[in-house]
Amino acid sequence: MLVIHCPFCGPRNESEFINGGPAREKRADNPNAYADADWIDYLIEAPNPLGPVTEKWWHVMGCSMWFSIQRNTLTHEILDYANKTHD
Fold first, then answer.
1. How far apart are CA 76 and CA 29, in angstroms?
2. Is 49's pLDDT higher than 90?
3. E-strand spans in 32-82?
4. CATH 3.40.50.300 fits 3-86, yes or no
5. Which of 10, 13, 61, 68 could covalently link to 84 via disulfide, CB atoms 3.0 to 4.6 Å apart?
6. What are the two backbone dihedrals, phi and then psi, of residue 45, each rounded to the nearest 5 degrees?
């Protein structure tokens, strides 16, 4: 079991959260500037990195806020709380 420190509610059991996956680069302002294959890769291929990853988490059973943490996907150790909130 992970204990995740919500920046708004404090430490909570991971069962209160939904993992939103790795934080990704911002969507392109002009998708027409990308080759079709590159755009399809961005839209469809989900990143699945091993090791330290910055992830988005949603506190669905609490304050309903999104925030980021850095977690090692091999060990599940939480390395850093970025405490960036997301829309």
1. 34
2. no
3. 52-58, 66-72, 78-80
4. no
5. 68
6. -75, 115
Helix residue ranges, H only, 1-87: 36-44
- Residue 18: which residues within 8 A CB-CB, separation 6 or more? 57, 58, 60
Class of residue 4 by CB neighbours under 10 A (exposed 0-12, middle 13-18, buried 19+):
buried
**One-letter amino acid identity for 17?**
F
Closest-CA residue to 50 (of 67, 69, 71, 68)? 71
Residue ranges per domain, the chain? Answer: 3-86
Determine the pLDDT at residue 86.
56
Q: What is the mean pLDDT of residues 29-56?
A: 86
Phi/psi for 49 (5° steps) reads -75, 155
Alpha carbon separation from 60 to 6, 13, 39, 40, 87 (Å, rounded)? 11, 12, 30, 29, 14
